[in-house]
Write a structure and sequence with these properties.
Elements lengths: L2 H11 L36 E3 L1 H5 L2 H18 L1 E5 L5 H17 L2 H4 L5 E3 L2 E6 L13 E6 L23 H12 L2 H12 L15 E8 L4 H4 L6 E4 L5 E5 L6 E4 L5 E3 L7 E5 L1 H6 L9 E3 L5 H4 L3 E3 L2 E3 L6 E2 L13 E2 H13 L10
Parallel strand pairs: 1-2
Antiparallel strand pairs: 2-11, 3-4, 4-5, 5-6, 6-13, 6-14, 7-12, 8-11, 8-14, 9-10, 9-12, 15-16
Helix pairs in contact: 3-7, 4-6
Length: 362
């Protein structure tokens, strides 16, 4: 067994505390495997807050303030909220589901492996084979992360989609998805900053032509062997970004760890977007906004377990040399200023190995 295989096998049995030395913000402890010590506790009564982003996009100053406070309260509570009224045509999300299925199902494995993931800046971009999302997550999912360089966003004369896409004709389709998601970065960040008492435009320049990660997840149908393996479809983790925008998946599975230590099932309405806080935002908010643990579990309905599950979250990042610094007015800073690339890679070294971290020059 290789060292990575051994680490993934150990990870199924491990507690997150065994990898906590990598974390750059405080996090709750939980078992990586599902039902590691018997049946898990679920909070079946918890209701995620649904926020109408249209109040910010088209409303007056009072509407924007009310939206910011409602969204901020939800994010403080559990780090997740459901966005409606976002203005993106839900048919785009329906089309994107088909594009993801087409990309994964029609591309031979040997061709996928030509684009195997490697670090670019702070983020690992490219293809992740099934069971290899990370060194500690033997997840039952294939993944693909496309960063800014994978899209012809600036109309560069030297851009060639064949360098980064096994199906170059899909790049313009996914570019539409990315453009739509990016249009929400400023409204979301401005609302969060308003809630935290900071100037709402504080991050506008940092989110001008921002770094992002468009992740595509393809979860094959689950057989008896997969269901009995001890792995989840995607094991518990937190997002290392400012925030993530996830168009509501059509197959059950997303679960969130509440502050009570119980898991909560999140089933968002079709066409809505799930928003969650990432580690960057927990750090700069001085822990006011938690980067909450979440996972993708097998559906309760056996018929749904036999269906392919697709998701396509968009992660909002800061550029690698930006400084993460606790915002003023949030009490004594619990964290020192740190470069985004150092923060990001120290954290994700737990997934990819200690040599993944990029340290600041002495």
């Amino acid at each position: 067994m290789s060292s990575k295989e051994s680490r993934r096998s150990d990870g199924i049995r491990a507690s997150s505390a065994e990898f906590a030395h990598h974390d750059q913000v405080g996090k709750a402890d939980y078992h990586l495997a599902e039902a590691a010590d018997g049946p898990e506790d679920f909070d079946e009564s918890f209701q995620f807050t649904t926020c109408d982003l249209g109040r910010f996009l088209t409303g007056n100053a009072r509407d924007r303030q009310a939206f910011a406070q409602e969204l901020g309260a939800a994010m403080e509570d559990i780090g997740f909220a459901i966005l409606q009224g976002h203005g993106i045509d839900p048919r785009l999300f329906e089309d994107a589901q088909g594009w993801v299925e087409e990309l994964f199902a029609t591309t031979p494995l040997e061709q996928k492996l030509r684009f195997r993931a490697a670090r670019h800046g702070a983020v690992s971009e490219g293809y992740f084979p099934i069971n290899e999302t990370s060194d500690i997550h033997p997840d039952m999912v294939e993944g693909w992360v496309f960063g800014r360089r994978a899209f012809d966003l600036e109309g560069r004369p030297d851009f060639d989609a064949r360098d980064l896409w096994p199906r170059p004709e899909l790049e313009p389709h996914f570019r539409r998805l990315v453009d739509a998601g990016q249009s929400l970065f400023l409204p979301v960040m401005q609302s969060i900053l308003t809630h935290l008492g900071s100037p709402p435009q504080l991050f506008d320049s940092r989110l001008d032509r921002p770094d992002f990660g468009q992740r595509l997840n393809y979860y094959p149908a689950l057989g008896d062997r997969a269901l009995g393996s001890g792995a989840g479809r995607l094991l518990g983790h937190e997002d290392v970004d400012l925030f993530t925008l996830l168009p509501a998946p059509t197959v059950e599975g997303l679960q969130v760890l509440s502050s009570s230590g119980k898991w909560v099932r999140l089933d968002a309405p079709p066409g809505s977007i799930v928003l969650n806080t990432g580690d960057y935002l927990q750090r700069i908010s001085n822990d006011v906004l938690p980067s909450t643990t979440h996972r993708v579990s097998p559906p309760r309905d056996p018929d749904q377990a036999q269906r392919i599950r697709v998701s396509f979250p968009l992660a909002a990042y800061l550029r690698p040399d930006e400084i993460l610094k606790v915002l003023p007015g949030l009490g004594p800073p619990r964290y020192e200023p740190i470069r985004a690339i150092t923060f990001h890679t120290r954290t994700t070294a737990k997934f990819y190995g200690d040599d993944y971290a990029v340290e600041d020059p002495a």
